[in-house]
Design goal:
Layout (H helix, E strand, L loop, with lengths): L5 H13 L20 H12 L18 H6 L16 H7 L17 H12 L14 H8 L18 E3 L5 E5 L3 E6 L4 E7 L4 E7 L5 E7 L3 E7 L6 E3 L2 E5 L7 E8 L3 E6 L5 E6 L3 E6 L8 E7 L5 E6 L5 E6 L4 E5 L4 E6 L6 E6 L5 E6 L4 E5 L6 E5 L6 E6 L6 E5 L4 E4 L6 E5 L6 E6 L5 E6 L3 E6 L5 E6 L9
Parallel strand pairs: 4-9
Antiparallel strand pairs: 1-2, 2-3, 3-4, 5-6, 6-7, 7-10, 8-9, 11-12, 12-13, 13-14, 15-16, 16-17, 17-18, 19-20, 20-21, 21-22, 23-24, 24-25, 25-26, 27-28, 28-29, 29-30
Helix pairs in contact: 2-5, 2-6
Bound molecules: heme C.
Heme C binds next to α4.
Length: about 475
């Protein structure tokens, strides 16, 4: 693999500065050993990274649209930005190398391209400025790049702990599932053993739900690149590798059961209705989508997609009666959606700061929300959204909040490294669960309701008994990192 360490790149820049070669153009003939430059492999990723924000089909700065090769080649206010075989006559090269005012990306609006990138673009033009023969010149370049992208193979040993941004107990209550790096990690809790690894296209998982048929729905992302909702069968076929089963959730249709959604940025949260018939998902694109699952995985129906939040949607939950969906957003509000009317019917504004998590009371009448303001706020979910009480105690942002399915009990997880249990009916504080050494990113109740698991920024997961607050198990889910004592 190529090194992407920032210090390595810096060393390259320093070398060019030190040698006085700040702006140079390789000229002359291509050597016989010169590697052919591919537009799709080498150039399109540069355009996507550094140029497309201003030169997409919407913005078309300078009337130049780079969303397809055909439009890019046609140019904008000027003629085509490149002249095949002649970098020195190509506007593109002039604009990415100039130290003058016309530089692209414009000064202060983006980093100038590295010398290595400039070299690539230059060589591509020298070699004829061609599009790869297997790509349609009218094809959307971002979509083509996404199609070509392949997830990396699994690492035997993680060099850095993985942040546990999603966590769930398996339906048998004996294992936990944690999001890994391009994989789902299934750990046996009593044995503290990595039982299964399910390879995924997604780099990170942000939301998990198990459906009644034992399938695991995952909301995830390659942050900034794509987001997805995919459905996996954790009991699908795999290969044994030193006692750990490895399942292919990228290609094998017996493991990757369904691909529900692709978006341009991260999907951050999921919720399943109590009857298992409806699934909701949301994320950076602010759209709340609801599927009807009664037709099975062969025929999931996107029933509604509603856009009402002004910023990322970070958490979703159905009320137990299945009539409403509650959402929390970075736009500093929580909302209530009427699933029959297919619209937002209430906005709860009291947090005044980003709201990270939302849960619902067992009688479906109250909403619980929490976020940056360190408070859990309890409010009437209908009709007026009035606050009933606020619960304080955490000393930093509350990142997760979940409601126990059977008891008057909610659990909150915070950047203050603790998990707190509360009785939302009386407002009484219960156990404060310590032990994690970093910010707590994820929470899950066990299926029988007797235990709670929490995962942290540094890969640790702890399971506690709810009744007495006792620590049951503790592990670091990052494969190959030494287990925590
Ligand atoms: C922050 C926005 C922004 C970014 C990022 C950006 N551009 Fe531009 N670009 C512009 C604007 C604005 C113009 C029009 C300038 C003018 O007309 O003087 C322009 C004009 C151009 C033109 C001339 C178009 C024509 O036909 O006259 C080219 C070529 C170009 N950009 C290439 C690039 C490349 C290559 C990159 C990435 C390395 C890039 N731009 C990144 C804003 C941007």
């Amino acid at each position: 693999m190529r090194s992407r360490h920032p210090l390595v790149n810096r060393a390259v820049v320093l070398f060019f500065l030190a040698s006085g070669v700040i702006c140079y153009l390789p000229s002359g003939r291509i050597g016989a050993d010169e590697k052919p430059v591919s537009f799709m492999r080498d150039i399109a990723p540069i355009l996507k990274e550094s140029c497309l924000a201003c030169h997409d089909a919407k913005k078309r700065s300078g009337k130049l649209d780079m969303s397809t090769f055909e439009r890019f080649a046609a140019g904008g206010n000027s003629d085509s930005p490149f002249v095949a075989g002649k970098p020195e006559e190509s506007l593109l090269i002039e604009l990415i190398t100039t130290t003058g005012k016309k530089r692209m990306p414009p000064e202060g609006k983006g980093q100038r391209l590295t010398q290595a990138q400039v070299d690539l673009v230059t060589r591509w033009i020298q070699q004829g400025a061609r599009l790869d023969p297997d790509v349609d010149s009218k094809a959307d370049l971002v979509r083509e790049l996404r199609k070509r992208w392949q997830p990396p193979s699994l690492l035997d040993h993680y060099r850095f702990p993985v942040s546990v941004t999603a966590l769930a107990f398996t339906p048998d209550g004996k294992h936990i599932v944690a999001g890994g790096h391009h994989e789902l990690l299934i750990w046996n809790i009593p044995e503290r053993r990595l039982k299964k690894r399910i390879r995924t296209r997604s780099e990170r998982s942000y939301g998990f739900v198990f459906t009644p048929d034992g399938m695991l729905v995952v909301a995830g992302a390659r942050p900034g690149q794509e987001g997805d909702v995919r459905v996996y069968n954790p009991n699908g076929p795999g290969q044994d590798a030193n006692g750990t089963m490895v399942l292919d959730g990228v290609e094998n249709p017996q493991v990757l059961v369904r691909h529900l959604l692709d978006t341009d940025d991260s999907m951050l949260c999921l919720a399943l209705s109590a009857d298992g018939k409806r699934l909701a998902a949301a994320g950076c694109d602010r759209v709340v989508r609801v599927w009807d699952l009664t037709g099975g995985w062969n025929n999931p129906k996107l029933e509604q997609s509603i856009e009402n939040h002004a910023d990322w949607v970070l958490s979703l939950t159905f009320t137990p009666d299945g009539k409403h969906l509650l959402s929390a957003s970075r736009d500093k509000t929580a909302k209530v959606w009427d699933l029959q009317a297919k619209e937002s019917v209430m906005t709860f504004p009291d947090h005044q700061q980003p709201v990270y998590a939302v849960a619902a009371s067992r009688d479906s009448k109250l909403g619980y929300s929490a976020g940056e303001d360190k408070q859990i706020r309890i409010w009437n979910a209908a009709p007026e959204g009035k606050q009933v009480r606020a619960l304080g105690g955490h000393t930093d942002s509350i990142l997760r909040l979940i409601a126990h399915p059977g008891q008057a009990l909610i659990a909150s997880a915070s950047a203050d490294k603790s998990v707190r249990l509360w009785n939302p009916d009386s407002g009484a504080a219960g156990h404060v669960l310590h032990g994690l050494s970093d910010q707590v990113y994820s929470l899950a109740f066990s299926p029988d309701g007797s235990q709670i698991a929490a995962g942290s920024y540094n890969g640790e997961v702890i399971v506690w008994n709810i009744a007495d607050g006792k620590l049951v198990a503790r592990l670091n889910v990052s494969p190959g990192l030494a287990a925590a004592p």
